[in-house]
Amino acid sequence: MSDSTAVPTSDPQTADPGVEVDPRLLEILVCPLTRGPLEYDRARGELVSRGARLAYPIRDGVPIMLPEEARELDGN
Question: What is the pTM of this model?
Answer without folding.
Answer: 0.74
